[in-house]
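Quick one, probably user error.
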């Protein structure tokens, strides 16, 4: 049986490289909070502050990555960002000896890790324009198979050595950089679809003018921001709760393993949801927020491991709906300026990763799991509202364009 019929070999190689990189990333990110709280002996507020600094770096990286796509070139941008990310990961063991240096390195890691994201998304959207929506979903699934593999190892590696996870993540990031260096030299750094888009779009539009087209990005980005604030409950609510209850740390890794497995095996279910009640990208965003809200409500009402498992299932369905929908929507509606809007929307959404851990850490230190679950539910309600606004404005704009034609 052929794998991914209709796609060139380069797509399949790209998916394998993405899977390897995602596996390495998954070895680390669920463990950062545990490492600061457990290994370094810091409070959850301190753990949240580290995530805040890392996320601030991520916001800057997203914004720079989108703005530099056409100026620097996709090859130098992606390869350089991945290589620098690998170097920061290799530096982390030494940086952990000094708290201020550790914080600085985590910020640089967030910067370099996010710098390549809008460039990779834009490259895919431009090069495979005819099937970009389907391909974004395939890449998302491949990445999360890597997440399943990585998180399956993360809890066990935490019992052996946190630093081993960090170093292995650096190795996979370096491998991904080497892959892109070879891959982009072979296929060419300028996707053909982008040259077509250049002819159709003005070249000298300023960033401020582009930001004025708020219907493309603003309301959906704010909705994503609220979702990411709420989703911080896993690292800064559920994680310390499991440690405080004296449960094995590996069961936290199992939750993220479940997340990765669900993303692979629940594709038919998500396909049904899309066909029945969420056929458009805007509808998928709204449905996503409803699933997230349901998951957070379960954590609030059933604060036990079976409850966490059910909540992860519901939140994962929400993730599966929104993750391919947002880059697909922007790639479909932003033309040549898609890299800018991908970086801008990613940066706004990533602000939730800045605000969320600090808020959640403070709430957890003051009252345990329940206040963090209430905050997550409130954030999901706000996300539903902003995604509804985004869908309404988009429909109104389409009606206006049709009547003008």
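Nope, works fine. Designed sequence:
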């Amino acid at each position: 049986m052929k794998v991914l019929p209709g796609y060139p070999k380069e797509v399949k190689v790209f998916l394998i490289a993405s899977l390897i990189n995602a596996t390495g990333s998954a070895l680390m990110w669920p463990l950062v909070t545990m490492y600061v709280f457990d290994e370094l002996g810091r409070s959850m507020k301190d753990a949240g502050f580290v995530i805040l600094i890392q996320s601030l770096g991520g916001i800057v990286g997203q914004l720079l990555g989108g703005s530099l796509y056409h100026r620097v070139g996709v090859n130098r941008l992606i390869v350089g960002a991945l290589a620098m990310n690998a170097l920061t990961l290799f530096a982390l063991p030494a940086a952990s000896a000094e708290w201020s240096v550790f914080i600085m390195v985590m910020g640089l890691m967030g910067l370099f890790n996010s710098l390549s994201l809008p460039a990779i998304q834009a490259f895919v959207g431009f090069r495979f324009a005819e099937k970009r929506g389907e391909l974004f979903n395939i890449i998302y699934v491949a990445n999360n198979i890597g997440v399943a593999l990585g998180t399956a190892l993360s809890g066990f590696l935490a019992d052996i050595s946190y630093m081993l996870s960090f170093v292995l993540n650096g190795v996979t990031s370096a491998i991904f950089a080497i892959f892109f260096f070879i891959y982009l030299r072979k296929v060419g750094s300028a996707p053909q679809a982008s040259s077509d888009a250049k002819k159709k779009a003005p070249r000298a539009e300023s960033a401020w003018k582009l930001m004025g087209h708020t219907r493309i990005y603003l309301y959906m980005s704010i909705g994503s921001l609220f979702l990411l604030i709420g989703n911080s409950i896993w690292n800064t609510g559920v994680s310390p709760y499991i440690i405080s209850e004296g449960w094995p740390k590996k069961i936290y890794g199992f939750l993220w393993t479940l997340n990765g497995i669900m993303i692979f095996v629940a594709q038919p279910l998500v396909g049904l949801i899309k066909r029945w009640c969420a056929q458009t990208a805007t509808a998928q965003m709204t449905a996503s927020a409803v699933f997230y809200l349901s998951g957070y409500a379960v954590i609030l009402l059933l604060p036990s491991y079976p409850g966490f498992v059910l909540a992860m299932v519901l939140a994962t369905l929400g993730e599966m709906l929104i993750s391919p929908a947002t880059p697909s929507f922007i790639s479909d509606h932003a033309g040549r300026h898609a890299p800018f809007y991908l970086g801008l929307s990613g940066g706004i959404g990533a602000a939730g990763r800045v605000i969320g851990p600090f808020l959640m850490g403070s709430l957890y230190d003051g009252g345990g799991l329940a206040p963090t679950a209430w905050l997550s539910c409130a954030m999901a309600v706000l996300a539903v509202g902003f995604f509804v606004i985004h869908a309404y404005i988009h429909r109104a704009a389409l009606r206006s364009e049709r009547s003008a034609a």
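The radius of gyration is 20 Å.
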